[in-house]
Design goal:
This protein has seven helices and three strands; from the N terminus they run H-H-E-H-E-H-H-E-H-H. The chain is α/β, with parallel strands linked by helices and 141 residues long. A three-stranded parallel beta sheet has the order 1-2-3. Strand 1, helix 3 and strand 2 form a beta-alpha-beta unit.
Length: 141
């Protein structure tokens, strides 16, 4: 997780129950603008230890507010050129959608997932998480 600072919530794991509990207890919404470039590069470093034979994916939960759009654009290209899928979950009615389309992996419709509000995400966490997992997880590379 990152905003103006980074916070690792969990290492890579195959234990979904433990991951869910860790996310629920440690992940907090860092309101305000984000330094996306730093977060993308941190996630890429973490994915060096990912399983072979699957497409690594970075999932970004954002309100669309970024302070470093030029650096974020560079970092997103850097990450995507290394075969990492970049998916954004956009919460709220931000006007950042068109800008985020330049950052996500193509096709944009599959990799830019809108959710009405952060409150909606919290209230319907199970259904949103299920949809995000079904939309983003691939079997193999």
């Amino acid at each position: 997780a990152w905003g103006s600072r980074s916070q690792r919530v969990s290492l890579l794991t195959s234990n979904s129950a433990a991951l869910g509990q860790t996310i629920s207890s440690k992940l907090n919404w860092m309101q305000g603008t984000a330094r996306l470039s730093s977060g993308l590069l941190t996630a890429r470093r973490m994915l060096r230890r990912s399983r072979r034979g699957v497409v690594p994916t970075i999932l970004v939960l954002t309100s669309g507010q970024m302070v470093d759009i030029r650096r974020a654009t560079w970092a997103s290209r850097f990450v995507r050129k290394r075969g990492i899928r970049l998916v954004f979950v956009l919460t709220g009615r931000s006007s950042g959608g068109p800008m985020l389309e330049r950052l996500v992996t193509s096709p944009h419709a599959e990799n830019l997932i809108p959710i009405a509000t952060m409150e909606d995400l919290k209230a319907n966490m199970g259904s949103h998480v299920r949809r995000i997992i079904l939309d983003t997880c691939s079997a193999t590379a």
